[in-house]
Amino acid sequence: MKRDNINYLVVGTFVLIMFAMFFTLMYFVTGRTGPAEHYFVRYKNVSGLKFGTGVFYEGYRVGQIEEIVPAPASTGMEYILTLSIKREWKIPEDSIANIMSSGLISAVQIEISEGKSSKSLAPGGELEGREQLNLFAVLGDVAGEFGALSEDGVMPVLKNLNTRIDEISAEILHFQRKQLSPLVETLNQRVNEDLIGDAQALIAKLDNSAQQLEKILGSANQQQIEKFLVHIDDVALNLNELISRIEGTRTQMGETLAALKNLASANDEKVASTIRNANSAMQQALEALTTVNEHVATIMYNVEGSTRQLHEFSQSVRDNPARLIRGSEPHDAAD
């Protein structure tokens, strides 16, 4: 008998412990973690909200919904929610209670956004409520607006654009048939008749010029050109000899003037006046000869340059006799 009582006592104790653990678990699951204070908030739509829905303060759970009470108002039906929040939890007066969900398939919850006011809301006070936007409803409204825009705005524009493109295509075809085709035919005719005829005439003229040039540069004319070049070489040699003679004459005149000057300086005082007169005359003659000497130098310089150019010309003509006919291209001074 004693043994049965012990068994009943053990079983009863186990059942009581299980009940205690169950109630403790339910207490923590429902969010009751200690003494709480009540706050109120109003919404026009409480979809997804119910008793036990969590209340979070900047992401931290501080309580739950205790009660939802309908309250008719002049603007329509409203719902007053009683929020159970931890005692001594400071909530600024301008805080906002938002209905939101952390994801598309997450449960709806109330998120209190912390305000900037330094004064805290007293327990039993009312928070400003802000309802959650229904994403699917908004997408449905946007889709409806896009459908209306497509029917009322885009389709008429596309129809008008299609009509205008057809008109432009018709005008282009008309222009191609009435104006472009005759223009192409006329251009083809001009090319075949005028340009080809002018090209043939130009080719004939070029052929005639080539034949005349061949006659000019024939064997008989080449012999005459060579003789002319030989005479040019003789002229250049004669010019060189003349320049050398002029240079000798200038030297002799300078020596004569120097001798006369020495003679005048050697005379005595008796013939001083005569010497002075002769010296004056000789000075004038010296100036005249100096002027002549300067011009003779210029003349010799020019004659020497001309001789060198004639020699170069004769050499280039001897190398290429055709230059007497067509000439040569001018050379740049820089080259």
What would you say about this model in short?
The chain is built from 5 helices and 7 strands. With 335 residues, the chain is of the alpha/beta class.
In words, what does this structure look like?
63% of the residues lie in helices and 16% in strands. It has 335 residues and is of the alpha/beta class. It has 3 domains: 102 residues; 78 residues; 110 residues. A 7-stranded mixed barrel has the order 1-4-3-2-6-5-7. α3 runs antiparallel to α4. The longest helix is centred in the middle third of the chain and has 82 residues. The protein is elongated, with a radius of gyration of 64 Å. The model has no long low-confidence stretch (mean pLDDT 76).
Which features characterize this protein?
alpha/beta; 3 domains; 63% helix; 335 residues
Low-confidence stretches: none
Oligomer: single chain
SSE topology string: HEEEEEEEHHHH
> Could you give the count of β-strands?
7
The major β-sheet equals: 7 strands, mixed, barrel
What is the helical fraction, as a range of percent? 55-70%
Euclidean distance between termini CA atoms: 140 Å
Shape: elongated
Structural class of the secondary elements? alpha/beta
Strand residue percentage: 15-25%
Number of domains in the coordinates? 3
Mean pLDDT equals 76
* Rg from Cα: 64 Å
- The strands making up the biggest β-sheet line up spatially as 1-4-3-2-6-5-7
Number of helices: 5
